[in-house]
Automatic annotation (TrEMBL):
Pfam families: Toluene_X
Family per record: Belongs to the OmpP1/FadL family.
Keyword entries, A-Z: Cell outer membrane, Membrane, Signal, Transmembrane, Transmembrane beta strand
Signal peptide: 1-21
Residue ranges the record marks as coiled coil: none
Main location: membrane
Protein name: OmpP1/FadL family transporter
Compartment list: Cell outer membrane
Lipid bilayer topology: Multi-pass membrane protein
Length: 413
């Protein structure tokens, strides 16, 4: 087993994800932020998890911290068939409706320290993920039966106060991606033989990027954060397994860019109450589609999705109930990058989502805090009229929703 494969196997033993933000991004990087629907994430300096959203926030964290957190994501994505068909010859596609959503777990780990005038940190995160698994006989089987995308991001960061008002932070990112895609192939269309057979693609890759941010304190009670996280380009390589057509077995590759993001956040204290807001832009047009090529450069599959850039808006509040307990709540609007029903693939059946979140922070002792949070995501009914070969048309709609349960422990030392 190669070093890449071994490292990936160890890391992924800790992480199984199901997408819950727009596209296949995972915003679940902090339990304290989860209780706010991530309002003010680049300006809120409650704990060291701010380093993911804005590394400049490290300058506001006293001493040293270790944070261990996790998020259980329980989605539903029920497909309702409404006339899926095979164009040539013209007939109805047979198969059941299905709910491909799977329960996932997303872990977070942070460490914050200090050396001289610099605050330093290390974050280990799962920034993208998608696991959808349909039955082999469902009506959309010629487009997808399983999609399992896993990522691990290792993010060291450093920050320093430039003066009493401004701080700057910078981080590097080392990112590993592992992808599994399966679908059924209509042998009657491809080889003239009756029946279906399975096609499986596996690939992995390492990629590299950076992130930076500014934190402005115009007054003691106000934080304004501006941050940017670069895109990460992956040249994934792997194998295709297609028993029905032996020449297709062999090596494959795919070049794909996971999107850049930029956030503007604000937080203002009103005594016991803190008001927070955030706007985050994701450059999903970096992604567009996932094209798989064989060793000769010929395209085997093209998961055409034509993603567009999207925005996420959130507002929330923190109320300090007493010396040991704080309450959190927030709402958000998360726009989908999918432009219309003809680009909604069953591998990423995304739609606009509205978040409602609540959370609580409790001081267990002088140096240990516990954060708990719950979010419910209401998703718009999303229509589908999708084909990549002008032969197999998936027609219908998705009814979706998501529940998220989050927890983290903070050790200050």
């Amino acid at each position: 087993m190669s070093f890449n494969k071994l490292t990936g196997a160890i890391l992924f033993a800790l992480a199984s994800q199901t997408v819950s933000a727009s596209g296949f991004a995972l915003i679940e990087q902090s339990a304290s932020g989860q209780g706010l629907s991530y309002a003010g994430a680049a300006a809120s300096t409650e704990d060291a998890s701010v380093m993911w959203f804005n590394p400049a926030g490290l300058t506001e964290i006293e001493g040293h911290q270790i944070i261990v957190g996790g998020h259980v994501i329980s989605p539903s994505a029920k497909f309702n068939n409404d006339g899926s068909y095979l164009a040539v010859p013209v007939n109805t596609l047979q198969g059941d409706e299905d709910n491909g959503a799977t329960i996932g777990f997303v872990p977070n780990l942070y460490w914050k320290g200090k050396t001289g005038d610099y605050d330093i940190g290390l974050g280990v995160n799962v920034p993208f993920g998608q696991h959808i698994s349909y039955e082999d006989d469902w009506v959309g089987r010629y487009h997808a039966t399983e999609t399992n995308l896993k990522t691990i991001n290792i993010n060291p960061a450093i920050a320093r106060k430039l003066n009493d008002e401004f701080s700057f932070g910078f981080g590097l990112n080392v990112q590993y991606v592992d992808l599994l895609m399966e679908q059924q192939v209509n042998l009657a269309s491809s080889t003239g033989t009756a029946g279906d057979d399975s096609l499986k693609i596996e690939a992995d890759s390492w990629g590299y990027g950076y992130n930076f941010g500014f934190l402005w304190k115009p007054q003691a009670t106000t934080n304004v954060g501006l941050s940017y996280r670069s895109s990460v380009t992956h040249n994934a390589k792997g194998n295709i397994d297609y028993p029905a057509v032996i020449p297709l077995d062999g090596k494959i590759s795919s070049d794909v860019s996971l999107p850049a993001t930029a956030s503007l956040s604000a937080a203002h204290d009103y005594g016991k109450f803190t008001l927070l807001a955030d706007a985050t832009w994701t450059k999903w047009s970096d992604y567009g589609s996932l094209t798989i090529q064989n060793a000769s450069g010929s395209t085997i599959t093209d998961t055409r999705q034509d993603f567009k850039d999207s925005w996420r808006y959130s507002v929330g509040g923190i109320y300090q109930l007493n010396d040991t307990t704080k309450l959190r709540a927030g709402v958000a609007l998360d726009q989908t990058p999918i432009s219309n029903e003809t680009n909604r693939s069953p591998r990423t059946p995304d739609s606009d989502r509205r978040w409602v979140s609540v959370g609580v922070g409790y001081k267990l002792s002088s140096n240990i805090d516990l954060d708990l949070a719950y979010s419910h995501l209401f998703a718009d009914n999303s229509k589908v009229n999708y084909t990549v070969d002008d032969a197999h048309y998936l027609v219908g709609s998705y009814d979706a929703s998501v529940d998220i349960f989050s927890a983290q422990m903070i050790w200050k030392y």
